């Protein structure tokens, strides 16, 4: 039975009890509970009034506690949100450039290498800002609803950022031409896994209503 239904039932029983009881209730025998008034002409009415008071107290005790965030939290949240808009376009651009270089027989001398490296550096920078603001706010909002989703999102984005750094380290260059093809394949595999994890983490928040 719902809370309001129980209150209505208690009020009805109390009304019948007061009608059937001999005499009239004195003014001092009237008990007020919030907006509910029950005539206390009999012990039955008294017990019903006490039960109603307990139900009101229980209902009030179950109300969620408001969580207040600091101004710094709100500032970091805005930075995190605005910077995140650059993440998906950068990942898509980096993937397209990487695939172009991977399939280019003369990729070692391609002019796209510099652009690919610059976009990769920008991507690592974006994820670095997101890591600082996201982890900081995750700690501060530890008790807020949606913590599990935020934690999963954070771990995925941190893993993707680590992958981008690993991909940059393993990028093939002019120093070791003997293993160039093998290094290129390793670089591509790490980059694809990192881009996939980063995209999944991004979409997790985008498609599920954000951090709530």
Explain what you see.
There is one protein chain. The chain is about 70% helix and about 5% strand. With about 210 residues, the protein is mainly alpha-helical. The protein has 2 domains: about 60 residues, no CATH class; about 140 residues. A two-stranded antiparallel sheet has the order 1-2. Helix 3 packs antiparallel against helix 6. The longest helix has about 30 residues.
In summary, what is this structure?
With 212 residues, the chain is mostly helical. The protein has six helices and two strands; from the N terminus they run αββααααα. Strands 1-2 form a two-stranded antiparallel sheet.
Question: How would the blueprint of this fold be written?
Answer:
Blueprint: H1 3-20, E1 30-33, E2 36-39, H2 43-61, H3 71-102, H4 112-140, H5 147-169, H6 180-206
Antiparallel strand pairs: 1-2
